[in-house]
Amino acid sequence: MIKLLIIADDFTGALDTGVQFASEGIKTRVLVYNPCEKLIDDEDNDTDVLVIDAETRHLSKEKAYKIIYDIVKKSKEENIKFLYKKTDSALRGNIGSELSAMLKASNEKSLPFIPAFPKMNRITKNGVHYIDNIPVDKSVFGQDPFEPVKYSSVKEIIKDQSSIETIEIPVANKVLAKKSKGILIYDAQSEEDLQNIGSQILKDNMCNIMAGCAGFAEVLPRILGLSGNIQSKVKLSEKLLVVCGSVNPITKRQLDYGEKYGFKRIHLSPEQKIKEKYWETEEGLNKLKKIKYSIQESDCCILDSNDKDSDNETFEYANLNGVSVEEIRVNISQTMGYLLKKIIDKNVNATFLVTGGDTLLGFMEKVGVNELTPICELTKGCVLTQMEYGEKIYHVISKSGGFGEENLIKTLIDLLKSKEINVG
């Protein structure tokens, strides 16, 4: 029976949040939302936490509002007691419209919103959101070529998409939240702050609807009384294939570090990453053979959709071929997903690291899978999942583009060489 419904706006975000429960042994499902299907099916009879990817990150604020509103309404019809709107920890996407939709559809008077993720150095102080002590609009997320964050004030980010009332809640003020209506924006600078906020929300009986990133999701099992049996170990292939569809500078630095360490890095040309049909040509099939050989002959192989340093060849190629900026984003995620499917169909034995929610979803669409089972976090922000495809089980590590230390890939290789991963 579903006790908690989590609604995310992309698939890596759904996994980042769902793994907080799965790693505790709590029965958790993570899948892509289909508006044509029932919210809950027969497989959910023994599921405690249902996480759905609503895929609203890149939609208009009006379309995102309607989707979230409809999901929340369906959840009320299914008598799901607790709802959590998972938001991006850098506040990208339709934050204001989606929180507004959740509050309106739920008929609750207030929605506690805790955007901080202290473990990832993402905090909220005096209503301003910081990434590594830099206001979010001045960070790398403010320079994102596809979805830049325009404000550092959480209230301003919400106001840009919604006229709903917002109240800033300082950490020390335990009375203001209970007396207020609208979206309640909580400051938080530490794990202790998150724990204290969770305890206060529980005490004030404000748990029916909540919102925040994967950071506050870690608190939810305790305050909602969820628990389960933890799986002990999982065996993985020692070889790592990195499929990078993220343009985030944090991910780029991780790839640079991996290449300097000696891992094989393959920069895909604009045609190879924008035109899916390339991989059916004779040239593409020969390139695929070389990629398979590189995977087999090295501990780690990186397929990189980023241009080389100082190059701008992808946008130049797109301009010459009439491809818009939005089409670049969509085409790359679809083509990278298709390429990974082709590799798997070649019976390559590897653990797959996919960076970027769009790329992960593109891959899932190509293999006809709408659900991944989260197992545990290998490192903060890197979620180990398993997937069934063609009667085989594959292990996929998902990572949001903005997560992880510079030496992330080497860290993952060291974990894979340990042969067994401890869970829990």
Overall description:
The chain is of the alpha/beta class and 424 residues long. The chain folds into two domains: 4-224, Rossmann fold; 233-422, Molybdenum Cofactor Biosythetic Enzyme, Chain A. 37% of the residues lie in helices and 23% in strands. It has 15 helices and 20 strands. The strands form three sheets. It has a 15-stranded mixed beta sheet, sandwiched between helices. Strands 6-7-8 form a three-stranded antiparallel beta sheet, with no helix packed on it. A hairpin with a 2-residue loop joins β7 (128-131) and β8. The model has no long low-confidence stretch (mean pLDDT 92). Residues 241-408 form the Four-carbon acid sugar kinase nucleotide binding domain. This is Four-carbon acid sugar kinase family protein. It holds the Pfam family NBD_C.
The number of domains: 2
CATH architecture of the largest domain: 3-Layer(aba) Sandwich
Tell the overall outline: globular
Strand order of the largest sheet: 9-10-5-11-4-1-3-2-17-18-19-16-13-15-14
User: How many beta strands in the DSSP annotation?
Assistant: 20
- Residue windows where pLDDT falls under 50 for at least 5 positions: none
